[in-house]
Structure formats: structure tokens, C-alpha cells
Amino acid sequence: MDPFNGEIIKNSFTALSDEMFEAMRRTSKSPIIYEVLDFGVGITDAKGELLAMGSGIPFLLSSLETLVKGVIEKHSPAGINSGDVFISNDPYHQGAGTHLNDCGLVMPVFFEGELVAFTSVNAHWTDVGGMHPGSMTPSARELFQEGFQLPNIRLFRDGEPVQDMFDLIEANVRLPDMSMRDLWASIAALRVGERRLQEVFERYGKGDVLDAMSDLLDYSERMMLHELKSLPKGVFEAKDQIDEDGQGNGPFKIKVKVTITDDQFLVDFTGSAEQAQGPINVSPLALSSAVRCVYHAVTNHSVPANAGTFRPLEYICPEGTVFSARRPAPVSTYYEGMAHAVELVWKALAPHLPDRLTAGHMVSTCVTIISGLHPDTHNFFVYVETLPGGWGAGHDKDGVDGTGCVANGETFNIPVEVKETKFGIRVERYTFNDEQGGGGTFRGGRGMILDYKITSDFATLTTVFGRHKTPPWGLLGGQDGTCNYAKVIHPDGSEETFGRAAGINLSKGDVVRLVTGAGGGYGEPDKRPSDKVLDDIKNGYLTSDQAAKEYGVELESQ
Amino acid sequence: MRVATDVGGTFTDLVYYDYDEATGQVGEIKTRKSDTTPPNFEEGVMNTIDQAGIAPAHFFFFAHGTTVVINALTEHKGSKTGLITTKGFRDVLEIQRGNRPDVFNFYFTKPTPFVPRHLRREITERSNFKGDIETPLALDELAGIVEDFRAEGVEAVAICFLHSYANPANEIAVLEELKRLNPELSAVASHQITREWREYERTSTAVLSAYIHPITNAYLDSLERRLNEGGFSGNGFVMQSSGGIAGMAAARRNPIAMVESGPASGVLGAVALGQLIGEPNIIALDIGGTTAKCSLVENAQVRLTTDYRIDWSRTNAGYPIKTPVVDIIEIGNGGGSIAWIDEGGKLHVGPESAGALPGPAAYGRGGTEPTTTDAHFITRRIDEDYFLGGEITPDMENVRQAFASLAKRLEVSIDEAARGIIRIANANMVNALKLVSVNKGYDPRDFTLVAYGGGGSMHAAALARDLNMAKVVIPVNPAVFSAWGMLMTDLRRDYLRTNLMLLDESATSEISSLFDSIESDARDDFQAEDIEADSLILQRQADMRYIGQDHVVKVDFPDGTITEETIGEAVERFHSTHEKEFTFRMEHPVELVTFHLVALGRVPKPELAKISSTGRSLNDTVRGNRLVDFDMDGIHETPIHERALLEPGMVLQGPLIIEEPATTILIPPGAYGEVDNYGNIHIHLEKQD
After folding, report:
1. Are residues B593 and B625 in the same domain?
2. Under 8 Å CB-to-CB from B456, ≥6 apart: which residues?
3. Does the structure show a pLDDT above 90 at B53?
4. Is A122 helix (H, G, I), strand (E, B) or coil?
5. Which CA distances in Å does B620 have to B626, B650, B671?
6. Which of A298, A415, A429 comes nearest B199 by C-beta?
7. Is residue B204 part of a domain?
8. Domains identified in chain A and CATH numbers
9. Which end is more exposed in chain A, N or C (fewer Cβ atoms within 10 Å of the end residue's Cβ)?
10. Residue B445, class by beta-carbon neighbours within 10 Å (0-12 exposed, 13-18 middle, 19+ buried)?
């Protein structure tokens, strides 16, 4: 094959997954798709090996492969026909592996009568039924309370929708208009991918395109093996804990052993706690996305993610742990457990990979759900957001201030002016958290403080704030950071503080204070250059007393 | 005389023509290029004028585009800036939006704020989302802040208060008090630049405006002084990012609007050219030394965006500026783009560029890496003996050497390597063209490609063919097309105001009074610049959305008295535009989010001179023949024509090359070109009937 056409074909896979991404974003009706970008699109080869994908969050790296491979496994290549579309939201088997909200679609692509590839989309639907609106509920004790299940079944046959399926889905979601639209948005994205891929086949011929597919995977594997050579070799271990599961249980001890050799990156979670009663569990399929995420971050994240990229990666976890839960354990807030899995590997490697990893960060998505009535329109609203927090310090830099945790990626906060208008809620302040913590030669990034004043007569609050007992870890002598928490302050001055809690009743005048902590520090605080300490005093991150106490820097009297 | 100058990163371009304001006699368009002269950019401008042998005393109309603003921002060479915010919100500037675009990078850094925390000061005040002041402004707190700023050497102050888009009163009060306390201090309040909601974006806009305000004004002062010394007494204008021009005084008040002046004028040039030749639907493509830029124009309307960011990339959030900017996509693929092979053996072209220095290997100025321009030499698409009109003799030995190691690693010949690099560069640019068209719901087949910049005409035909577009137009003087565009634009100012309201019959009077108030602001502004009321055109637009949705769609709002019918019409326009961009419509109520008024002050523009035909034969325009490599279309003995000799009506059958001093036009086998009355070349990709 002409080497240049080979490159152009390979680049076209990325371009077409970008186009699928844009098609999905443009045609979706739900903020969680077009604002939070909680979806993944991409293509695989005929065996289900990932060729290219686009996603706004980093936690879906295996989802398309487990979906497509599930279809091949259940329906067998001979049973898959042109015009089929399959749907699955199963976290445990032949699905995206995350939670029931993630509805995955798979479309086979044929060229000259041969099955040559699949296009696939995995998108978070705002609601899939279950016990509470939004389907993600900290109080669920089993999967059945988190929504309906679509076990890898046909949605289209011969290019025609299976109407019974559409009727069934529509009857089981709380927001049928939104969910059916997202379903069609997913189908639009699948079709864009299929059409573009067929154009590539027509232009360059089947042989060359199939060759380019396998070359691409080999190329990514080569890039990663090259990268592995430069990583430190050996066995690296870490321990940590997930503070609680939202139902008062915990802590859950977690443990990892990472073994890096010249050609393998092995992650072993043996010894981690048993699965939780609450929905912080990670299914074995989702754990695969977790290890891919952290492996990609510590090797070379500029190499595009495809099946070849992950060939040198292996992972082990005995069944039934918090990272490898068994059906029907609840998993709707899987991202909390998953963020811990990712950060645990990070913790094991951080001392050895100073160019790529920092001290510990806030870990938790710090999701807040407030519902109530707009004081002017009296319309009922449900408001969901994540809160940015502090990242850890590194060997040559202070931690990043106020940024979404590892589970979030291209996820935007909601502007104060927008939420005040839309929900009539009042924001009293939105600032960095100056609470002392995360000191070091390089200090941890600042967390946030966000104060809401409740303006309607009645409102409810649900919070998913992890790391509210165990602070982010410091590195090489750096201090630990500070904890995340939520607090309600009543007009009479009384207050309650908590991490994960569901359905707290609020009334007018209550202040909800949401706080994320500082990231961990790096290196001994007394080695911090005094000009940086003075800068921190000047910028209000430190008081002069703290500077003297933590850093041994005395402010010269004026 | 009408004159435009465009200061680019490498060159400063000059385009001018004689126009007798009394008789209407129009002269030939002439051009000049000389080096850009940082940091005193006005030197380069005056140099081109001097070299062209013309004098400012004769300029009736002088338009100017400049990279001064964007350079100051990207190189962080503006003024020391302080920020004043609502109490409780000084960190908004640094929190940004909390996003992390480089999702797998755990060692990322956020863009550093232009104002450090200790220079971000809070003042007691608060408005609610309706614009009602709930906490009065504590103006007495300002004196201490100004004193601290003075002690810190702050030169410029930005002010941004919550919900000031709805009610700017407190910002105005602070501006006035600042002026009283320290008249020397430069100050910008957010509402002066943008009245759209979203506090981070507005704060960032105010900060970046304040940051470049003093130096931009100093630059415009020096430029004006130099022109005046040359006897200039005409009308001076500055190109705006929105694709219009502004008078010098208005430009001084809002200098951030110049941030993308060069690229915007190219797109405006394409619109003007389209109107001249009857092509309202255009994709404009500008290929320069480092990047390729493209923008889509439908019905002669440029697409504007206020979601503009500097330093943005797929891995960096950048800094937002909410000033209206022509919607342009830019990719790192130009003539100087370097071809390289990574550790895994993959060939890339760009985004690294040899730039102007050392430049491509052919320049012989120390460049040793193979670039796209060098590939054009190997394929003999560019003439070794006529490079930049024969001014530079390319170092072909250096070019071949640059290709040798690349070819060896790829196990191909040097010729094959060169062809491959051009093919990959083309594929990259096709992807960019798809981003502005296919990915936004447009079919490229409904558009004509207008290609300019030094490299546009080398690649345009191949790109158009790839996208099944029927026609490419290469304008006259494509290398200085952006400057030409400035001669063809009108005065423009955009007024955007966020004010949410449900779009139904009950909103009639409210919409009416809002448009009235904005329109009266516009009339006042233009009157202050002595623009006659009858040359003022006001176009109403509105950003709308379905209730509950977040993304908005821009819709032309009907003119005239607002009635239930006009509102119905606006709603219907919204539904159909939404369907085009997002593929569906809903039964939901529609909400108006941001009022947008485009105010255009028509600048009288003489009709362009047509070129005359002497009846010269096509053969007489031939400079010679050479063997040219058209990659997949084969290697052909190709006639080379001199552009300056071409005349209207000539038909140029591909394979064929047209040369002019600053660029080369490629007509591949199977395509043909036609010369129109103004000298533009229309390349038809289909075979001639």
C-alpha cells in the first residue's frame, strides 16, 4: 500500500469519529450530552477492536469495545446483518459497563457484502426510570432500583426501527421526549460514521482500508511499547480508602499493585474491599475503562486511544469487590468508585513518575442536586452540577486550582448568572477555599467555596461528596490536602456537615455551603522558596501566622 | 486615492487604487508588500507607503488592519492590569469554567490569569438577575483600591460586576469615580464591550480589553501621527474582527474589537468578491505560511461568533473574548508546515512550521526540514526560476537533501515523498473545510471556494474536487486579498444585549422598546462619527432557544414595527434555522436570549475597474512549458501562463499553471479555468461541456 494513503486512511478514522461526536452533540436534546459531553462515539474493526473514539469525559475508554464485542458474542458474526442496530445498557454483561443511564448502540458496517467494521455510541440518558428522577440515586441498594435494563437486543432490523422496542423504552423513562431524541441523536451519529467509513472504503478499496486498520493498531502499540521502555520498572503499591457509600457504610479499604515491565503494564486490585451496599461500585467492565484511563495518562496521552494503545495493558481483580461488583449491586454513581480506582494507580506511581503525576487531588465529582421552586415563576426545577476542586502539586509546579476531578474532562461549571436566572437561586460567593492544607515545596491547588442561599419556600438537597474524611495525599514530604464537604447553615446559626446525603429538606433562608478541598503538597514545606510564600501571603492564600508556622517564613515587619 | 494596509505576522501588505471622487474615474488596483517591523509596526506601514511611491496627503480613504492586539495578548506584552469585581467573586477570573480539555493529561496546567489575585479587588455591590440593585454600591471603598493599585504600578483597570449586562449602573458609577480619583488611569468596564451574560467570559473580556487598551491606543496615536506628518487629511478606519471597519475614534474606545482584524477582512473580501461575481454562497480559504483558515458565508452573510478564545486548542481552554468575531476555523497547515515522522513511524505534516525564519528549505536560510512549499518545488508546481517573481533563487540542493532522509525512512523516492506530503496536507485541509460546512449542516456542493493567501491557489482545486465542489475562484492579487477586503467593507458595529424573555404575543412591547433603545444607541454612536442617518443600515438579529435548552441559534429578526405577526415570523425562522443546524424542531416555547443589532454605515465604494481585452491570443500568454507532477492525476507536460497577460473570456484547459509573482495557480487535468471581466480566475472542476 502507498504509505501516504495509509496515513490518510488512518487519519480519516479520527476525523470520522470527530464528525460522529459533533453529530451527537448537535442533535442531542439533553444538557448532559451537549454540555457535560457525557458520551462516547467511535468505530471498531470487525472484531470489535477500537479504531478511534471521541468523548468529552475520560471514563469511557472500554465502553465501545465491550458493547461491540458483546454484540459479536451474543449474536455471532453470522447473525449480524446489514441494517441491524443493537442496544444495551447492561453494566455487567455485554454493555458499556458503566451504569444503566449509559445506553449504548452498535451498528455493523458492511462493504461489498462483508462485515468490515462497527460504529458505536454510548450516551448518558438523563433518565432511565428507577426509583428517583435522574436514575442515579445514592439510596439504591440494587440495580433494579436504578432503571430498566436493555440486554443487548435489536433496535433496528433491515434498516427499520423495531417499533415494539421504541414503545417499550418510551413507556419506561420519565422524560420520553428527551430520551427518544437522544436515541435518535445516537442513531444519527452511527449513520454518519457508517456513511463516512463506506466512503473511505469506496475511495481506497477494501484491502487497503483493512490493512490500514491493522496498521493503525500496530502503530499505537509500537508507540506505547516505546513509551513503556522509558517508564520505571518494578512493582508499585498503594492503599487508600473510599470513605463511605452514601448509606452510612464504610470506610472501604482499597489496594493496588502495579507491575511495569518492558512490554507490560499490569494492574492488580486484589485485596480491595467487598462491594458496597450503596451505588459507588464499579462493575468489572467499567474497571477496564478505569485502568485504561490512568494507563493512558501515565504513558503518552497524545497517542490516540485505540485497541492497539491498550495491548500492553492487563488488569486483575477478583470478583465481588468494590471495583468488580456482582449483579445486582447498584452502580449508578460508579464514577465515584472509578475515580478512586484511577487515583489509586496514580498514587502508586506518582513518586516514580514526577513528570506525569502530581500528589493526590479532590477525587470526587462533588455532585450537588438541588430541587425546588423558582421564586418568580414557581416552576419546579432540578439542578445538577459538579464542583471543581484542588489538584495535587507536582515536582515543578503548584497544584492546579479549582478544576473538575479526574472523572470530569471537558465539563463546564454553570455560570452564576445563568443559574440565578434559571433557578432563581442566589449565589452568595464563589471563591477559592483559603483553608490551610496541601503545603509543600510546591503546594496543592486550592479548592472552592460555593454558597447558595435558598430563595424558595422549600427545596431539597442531595450531595455526592467523596473524600470528606480522608484528605488528598501529599507526596515526598508534602502535606495532605483538605477534605470536601457540604454544609447547611440555618438562619438561626445551627448547621449540619456531611459528604454523601440524599433528599435533605431545606427552607427559605438556609445557606448551602459546598466546599472542595486543597490538593496534596509536593516536597517539604520548609524548602518552599520564601518569595513564593510571600506571594501566597500577598494573594491571600496564607496568613503570615500560617507562613511562619507551616513554612518557617517570617514576614519582615514594615 | 483609496488605500488599505494590513499588518501581518511576517509581511505588511498595501493595496491601493486611484479614485477621482469628483468624476468617479477608477484606476487600476496596485499592491506592495514589505516586512513587518515589530515592535514599531507603524514603521512597516509607512515603509510600504514610501516604497509604493504614494503619499498620505492623497489618501481620501485609509483602512488599516493590524496584529498589534493579538500579539500583545499572545505574547503577554500588555499593561499591568487590576480588576474590580462584585464582593465574593474576585476568583471567577481564575476559576474559569473548571474544565479540563486535555482529558488524559493529569499534569495539565490551566491558563494563567492576566490579573493575579492580589490585584483582583472586591467592592460591596450586588444586582440580581433582573438587574435590580439589591446591595448599593459602596463607592467609598474605591479610594483605597485605587491607592493600592497606584502603589503596585497598575496601569489599566477592568471592572466586571455580576448581572451588569442587565444593569450597568454600578459599573458606570465606578468608571466615573475612577476618573475623578485618577484621570490618568485607563479603565474598561465589561458592559462597554459586551452585554451578554456569563460572568467568567465577561470578566475575561473586560480584563483583556483593559490589558491591551493603553498600548493599542499608543500604537494608533503613532500611526496617525506618522500619517498626519505625511499630510493625511482623509478618513481613517480600522478593521474590526466583526468584518466591518470603525472610525479611528471608535476603534480607540474599543480596541479589543481589532483582535482578528486581518483574517476577518479576508472573509469580507470573499463576500465582496462574491457579490461582484454573483456568488452569495462561499467558503473562504486562506492558506498562509503557518496556517490555513476557512470560513463559511451563506447568502453573502458572514457567520459571527462571540464564543471567541485566544490561545485555544484541543488541549487548552484559552481566554474568552466576547467581542463579535467572524467565525473562522484555523489549522496548523501552511506552506511552511514541516513533514516529520514520529517514534511509531507515522508521517505528519504540521502543525510545526518553519515560519518565515528559517523558512522552507528552498529559502536557503537555514531550514533543513522538508515543508509543503518544498514539496511544491520537487513536484515542479512552483517554478525554480520564478519563485516570488524571480526575486529568490531556491536552494534546490537543500530541498532535495531535506527530503532525502524522510524518503529513505519511508522507503520511497523523493518524488513520491513530495507527492505524499502534499496529499496529506490536502487531507488535513479538507478536514478543516468539513468542520465549517458538513459538521454544521451545510453541503459543500452548494458553495464556491474562494482561495487566497500565498498558498490558496496551489491547493484549492484538489480540495474542491475532494469535497465535490463545482467551482473555485482565485481573486486578483490573492496574496494581498485581506488588505483588498478592507477597501470593500462598511462601517460596522454590533450591539449584543442579553435579556431573557419568552417569545410570544405578550412580549411585543418589551421587544419593541429594547430594539428601539439599542437602535437609538447605534444612531447616537454613528452620529458622533458624522455618519449620515441615511447611510446607516440597522439589521435586527436575536439569539433564541427552546425553553430549557442551553444552546442558542442566531436568527434574523423581522424589520419594522413589532407585532404579533413579526413575532410569529421570528419564531418560525427560529424553528427552521434550528432544524437546519441541529436536525430537529420541537413544540416547546421559544425564548429570546440575546438581542443583537448590526449597525452598518454604508461607505460609498466605486465600482471596480474592469480589465480590457486587447484580443490577445491565449498562446501569447504562455511563459513556457514544464513537466509538472499532479500526483494522482499524473505527470504532464504543462503550459505555464503569465497571469498579468490573461484577458477576460480566456479559457484555460487543465493541466495548466498560471504564475504571478506572489503565487502559482494550479489547474489540474480535467478541470478548466475562465478569466472574468475583473481578472479573477474561475476554476471549474467538472469537464467543460
Report:
1. no
2. B285, B286, B287, B474, B478, B663
3. yes
4. strand
5. 17, 12, 21
6. A415
7. no
8. 3-222 (3.30.450), 358-527 (no CATH)
9. C
10. exposed
pLDDT tens digits along B256-289: 999 999 889 999 999 999 999 999 999 999 998 8
Are the beta carbons of A136 and A330 closer than 8 angstroms? Answer: no
**B403 and B502 assigned to the same domain:** no
DSSP states along B273-321: HHHHHT--SEEEEEE-SS-EEEEEEETTEEPEES-EEES-BTTB--EEE
Residue type, B609: A
Answer whether residue A475 shows pLDDT above 60.
yes
Residues 321-350 (B) with a CB less than 8 A from some CB of A = 342-347
Please, what is the Cα angle at A26 between A24 and A32, to 5 degrees?
Answer: 70
- All residues of chain A having their beta carbon less than 8 Å from the beta carbon of residue B107 are 355-358, 394
**Do B581 and B624 lie in a common domain?**
no
Residues spanned by the domain of B591? 491-601
Say whether B344 and A222 touch across the interface (CB within 8 A): yes
C-alpha cell at B313: 486548542
Q: Please tell me whether residues B592 and B495 are part of one structural domain.
A: yes
Q: Is the CB of residue B170 less than 8 Å from the CB of residue B194?
A: no
| Structure ipTM | 0.95
Q: Taking the CB of residue B225, how many other CB atoms lie within 10 A of it?
A: 12
pLDDT computed for residue A557 by the predictor: 47
Sequential DSSP letters for B22-81:
TT--B---EEEEEE--TT-HHHHHHHHHHHHT--GGG-SEEEEE-SHHHHHHHTT-S--E
Question: Can you spell out the DSSP letters for A132-188?
Answer: STTS--TT--SGGGG-----SEEEEETTEE-HHHHHHHHHT-S-HHHHHHHHHHHHH
- pLDDT at site A558: 40
Cα distance between residue A377 and residue B449, in whole Å: 50
| Cα A242 to Cα A337: distance, rounded to the nearest angstrom | 8
Q: What's the domain count of chain B?
A: 4
Q: Nearest CA to B663 among B488, B483, B481, B448?
A: B481
The predicted structure's pLDDT at residue A242: 97
Q: What is the pLDDT of residue B566?
A: 93
- For residue B141, tell me if it sits in a domain: no
Residue with cell 489540474: B668
Q: Kindly report the length of chain B.
A: 689
